[in-house]
Amino acid sequence: MGRSAPIRAGDETRESERESLLKRIAELDRSLEQALVVAEDAQEEARLLAADRIQLEEEMTAQRHEIAALRERLTALETRRAELLDALADAEQRLNTLRRDESHLSEELQTSYEELQVLTEELEEANADLEQRVEERTAQLTESERRFRTLFEAMDEGFLLADVLFDGDRPVDVLYLEMNPAARRMAGEDYVGRRLREISPAFEDYWYEVFGRAARDGEPTRTELYAGPLEKWISFYVFKVGAPEQRRIAVIFRDVTERKQTQEQLKQAKETAEAANRAKTKFLAAASHDLRQPIQAASLYAHVLLGSVGADPVAQESLSRLKASIDSLNGMLSGLLDLSRLEAGVIEVSVTDFAPTALMTRLAEEFRGVAEASSIDLRCRPGRLAVSTDPHLLERLLRNLLSNAIAHGRPKDTDGRGRVLFGCRRRADGVEFQVWDNGPGIPEDAREAIFEEFRQLKNPERNATQGFGLGLSIVSRLARLLGVEVALRSRVGSGSVFSVTVPHARKPEAGAAAVPAVRREPRLKGRTVLLVEDDEQVRRSMTMMLKRWGLRVVAVSSAGELAATLPSLRRPHVVLTDYRLPGGDSGRSVVELVRQRWPVPGIIITGDTAPERLREAMSLGCRLLHKPVLPADLAGALGEVMPS
């Protein structure tokens, strides 16, 4: 039983394969039958196709004949087509040309049309604008005419229109066409329709010349003329109006008779004041000379006594007080001298670049003792910025400002200390030197007067210890000489500040330059001085002082004595002479007399502050010293003029 099961399974498989094979054979039979049917159909179709082929070949033969005919026709058509294409190309070219011409013409027409439209719009706008401007101009002209008529009637100046009548090129008369009320008032009558010669034949010829020049040449003139028939000075402006061929003028004028009279009065007053000023200068020169003679002798004797009083305190105090009094008088007269030299115009400005530090420090030290004695706290703030100016003139200007501040810069009616600040500040246009004080201040109505000569606000009793009132006047003149301005700011009760601005140094490296050093006393020993002095006291004191310096002195009292002594003299090193000498002689005649023998330098001493003395000394090439001469100044002058 175990083996029969596999056998049945194999049989079943073979049975199944046989059935499949039978099915396959049956399908092949059917396919063969179908193929036979298809073959039969194909044979039939081949027969039909052969018949169709024969027919088609016949048709193709016919078509070939037809195609040959068509090809002949096509060749003919191609030829015709080429001809037509050539004709068409030519026509197209002509058409394109016509189109281009038409396009250009169309563009031009369009442009012209657009321009015409723009021009039409502009013309319309211009026409509208013109109409508006005509209306506005008409209104303006109407308004201008109204204003002109109002002005013509109301103006203070006279106004007239006139025709100038000529005989050839020569103006012979003036015909008045129109006058305003002011012109009629000034003339005293109405000139309209009348001629000038008819009105008054006495009118001066220059009226016709000025009016004729304006009418003929169109040359406007502004001037002032005197009208004799009216007895008035007339200031007027005349100019040509109307068409070029017309000889018509317009004149605007006013009466200036009163101003002319005032000017004449002012001129006479100025001449009177200048004459008074010249008389004042001459008086000061003469008075200065007379005052300086005794002061000169006293100063020289004091200098001689300085080394002779010993240790006696009473003698030293007396000599000190005597010297202080002489110095006070000398300071006052020096103010007159400075004023005279400035008026004479003989001071030369020598501009240089320098640093003002040493100058400011020296001035502060010089005034510190005076300030302490006056209960003034003096402070100095020197600057390092270099300036460009005359150092000596700047020093004199600042010295006067400091002296003024110390003398007048104390608080009013108080026991407190005064304060003076001396400094400088950088400004855009230079260095500003300032002198501040906390004094009573200067009222606004007196700020110009304080720069006048002999004006002192706080010294009505003319106390000589407070000076002559020349310090600020000299400051003002020195500032003008240096080309700068003195500024003043002040508040009553709070103090004042005087300032002057000096230009910056021209070269930046000039900052290290210093003010020229003060001259030292030269070596004079063994030199010979020819002294001519008529005042015995001055001659003796001068001789004593010169001999103390080691100089040999030949002293005479007049030019006559000098002339008698001169042949026996040896050549001196210098001539030292007073200006005014007996018998009408002068220092000039002394110098010229000595120089007839030797080319000797000269020093002229005078108490005369007149500007002429300064110019005269400069013309001789001599040094001029004013009495009273300080010993140091005399020694310095001797050292400068004598050859080394």
From TrEMBL:
EC number: 2.7.13.3
Keyword Phosphoprotein: yes
Residue intervals of the Response regulatory domain: 528-642
Tree of life domain: Bacteria
UniProt catalytic activity: ATP + protein L-histidine = ADP + protein N-phospho-L-histidine
Residue numbers bearing the 4-aspartylphosphate modification: D578
Protein name in the entry: histidine kinase
Organism this protein belongs to: Azospirillum formosense
